[in-house]
Design a protein that fits this description.
This protein is 11% helix and 55% strand. It has 131 residues and is mainly beta. The strands form two sheets. A nine-stranded antiparallel beta sheet has the order 4-3-2-1-11-10-9-8-7. A two-stranded antiparallel sheet has the order 5-6. Residues 8-25 form the Cytosolic fatty-acid binding proteins domain. This is Gastrotropin.
Length: 131
């Protein structure tokens, strides 16, 4: 896995266990509806261990997380809450512990695979590379 493995633009392709997961993390019902089958485009800019991770939502809303592997950074959750986290790299995966779930991202067969785990519920989102 090269240094620039994550850089690119990815479009939502499919997910598993969305409803169970968002219930576990307590997302409000309007946010739950907004996020269901949402064609999120994830844009990753990578410079060594420095990342800018942007999620573009339909309708123009974006969430941007800027972090460096191994250093604490301010991050934003799916629900829009800000928190401090130290993002790690484990076996080629980016790992971050959010307040009520653990999130990993990896590139698998040219796709961005994100897995979030909360109280035993595993939510998997797959996005295909578009740029």
């Amino acid at each position: 896995q090269g240094n620039m493995a994550f850089a690119g633009k990815y479009e939502f392709e499919g997910d598993e266990n969305y409803d169970d997961f968002v219930k576990k993390i307590g997302l409000s019902s309007d946010k739950v509806e907004m996020g269901r089958n949402c064609k999120i485009v994830t844009e990753v800019v990578q410079n060594g261990n420095d990342f800018t991770w942007i999620q573009h939502f339909p309708g123009g809303r974006t969430t941007t997380n800027i972090f460096t592997i191994g250093k604490e950074a301010e991050m934003e959750t799916m629900g829009g809450k800000k928190f401090q986290a130290t993002v790690k790299m484990e076996d080629g995966k980016i790992v971050a512990d959010f307040p009520n779930y653990r999130h990993t991202s990896e590139i698998c067969g040219g796709k961005l695979v994100e897995i979030s785990t909360a109280s035993g519920v595993v939510y998997k989102r797959t996005s295909k590379r578009i740029a």
